[in-house]
Amino acid sequence: MTGIGSKLSSIISQIGETSLLKLVLGMIVTIVLDMGVPTIAAYMLAASVSAPAFNSL
């Protein structure tokens, strides 16, 4: 409802000019999400946030 997932995805796409930088940013987002929620939910959230950013790889 806040739109944070699409905002994070667009930030990863804008900042990450190279594919390696996008992967590192996706890793950081996954680690941060894993701190607050259970493992399965964290990776589901990370996949839904990171997938649009990685779509252009």
Automatic annotation (TrEMBL):
Keywords: Membrane, Transmembrane, Transmembrane helix. The chain crosses the membrane at residues 20-46. This is Tripartite ATP-independent transporter, DctM component. It comes from Alteribacillus bidgolensis. Pfam families: DctM. Residues 1-56 form the TRAP C4-dicarboxylate transport system permease DctM subunit domain. It comes from the Bacteria.
